[in-house]
Design goal:
Distance between the termini: 44 Å
Number of helices: 13
CATH superfamily: Ribonucleoside hydrolase-like
Largest sheet: 9 strands, mixed
Strand order of the largest sheet: 4-3-2-1-5-6-7-11-8
Shape: globular
């Protein structure tokens, strides 16, 4: 068989595989009866894995479809973030979900020193656990995440909700490169920032905002819609212990939870409280009834403070709701979130 024929056959096979792994999101708008579309922008830590899992396992129950996953630097190098995302998708046989690689570094300044930013999830975002094999990267897309976002929001104007659970670099780049596209984002939910000055880095800032303060500043000050922010302090109000977490998922039949078990048995070995931060944003998108206390404010991001760089500052003196740019989520229904979590233990 000639090399030309071989190449032709391989090309046809590749096209067949690509078509068979097309996203489950409908190509065309399906009106009010269609699924709610969502893009998840993440930075590849274990809590990002829980957020992705929460969405994947609830597509049918809550009538959603994952339009894409976009990767950013943050908990790990963006190349490791890609591997972690694909590992979760592969475990659930969901490589149909398009995955795009985005920003590998902050917008302006070099990334903060690791001693300051506390790489809780290890070097690779998954606790540096040695898995037996690498997931296939064949399903990752060659288009940059920012270009993919632009195309999706333009194709489905005001129909896609964006969940950002890592640094805001990809979204800030979208705002600057394609400023008109931001008007076509259907909704924006963020995990990040802090509302009382309590940080989870060595300084007075939350990790995602601290990793790229300029990006967070751009997003909060340029978003045409109200931004729903789940801050670090709200995580601290939850009561999930590591003992509950390990006992609940010890006998799981969900292969993605098995992956996260291996990661978190190592990462949380000496911890008493389990903080699946990014998962909360996915849960809120799925089930808005878990929101119990929210408040709108005008907020900004500190860029120059010696110990406050990256801190989200609430401007309490701005009383006019028309000038508010964020809705801060202060309290959620932990019992309902717990129910949603327990449901993930069994494979769908």
């Amino acid at each position: 068989m000639s090399s030309f024929v071989v190449r032709s056959v391989l090309m046809l096979m590749a096209l067949f595989v690509a078509s068979s792994q097309a996203s489950k999101c409908p190509r065309e708008s399906t009106g009010r009866d269609g699924p709610r579309r969502v893009v998840l922008d993440l930075d590849g830590g274990g809590d990002d894995g829980w957020a992705l899992l929460m969405l994947l396992e609830n597509e049918e129950r809550y009538n959603i479809c994952i339009q894409a996953v976009t990767c950013s630097h943050g908990n790990a190098r963006v190349s490791d973030v890609l591997v972690n995302v694909l590992r979760i998708l592969d475990s659930l046989n969901r490589l149909d979900v398009p995955v795009y690689v985005g920003a590998s570094e902050p917008l302006i300044t070099p990334g903060p020193n690791r001693n300051d930013s506390h790489y809780f999830w290890g070097n690779n975002g998954f606790g540096d656990v040695e898995f037996d094999s690498l997931p296939s990267v064949d399903s990752s897309q060659s288009v940059h995440a920012v270009e993919a976002m632009r195309e999706l929001f333009e194709q489905h104007p005001n129909q896609i909700t964006l969940l950002v659970v890592g640094p805001l670099t990809n979204l800030a780049l979208l705002y600057k490169i394609y400023p008109a596209t931001k008007e076509k984002i259907g909704g924006l939910f963020i995990f990040g920032g802090n509302r009382h000055g309590v940080g989870n880095t060595a300084l007075a800032a939350e990790f995602n905002f601290f990793r790229d303060p300029e990006a967070a500043h751009i997003v909060l000050n340029n978003s045409p819609m109200i931004v729903y922010v789940f801050p670090w302090e709200t995580v601290l109000l939850q009561t999930f212990t590591t003992r509950w977490r390990f006992e609940t998922f010890a006998e799981t039949t969900n292969p993605a939870v098995e992956v996260l078990n291996r990661v978190e048995y190592k990462v949380y070995a000496e911890e008493e409280i389990w903080t699946p931060c990014d998962m909360y944003v996915a849960a809120i998108f799925l089930n808005a009834s878990i929101l119990q206390s929210v408040q709108s404010y005008r907020a900004d991001v500190e860029l120059t403070g010696t110990v406050t760089r990256g801190m989200m500052a609430i401007l309490h003196h701005v009383k006019d709701a028309n000038q508010h740019n964020v809705v801060v989520i202060d309290r959620i229904d932990s019992d309902e979130v717990q129910r949603m979590l327990v449901a993930l233990s069994n494979a769908s």
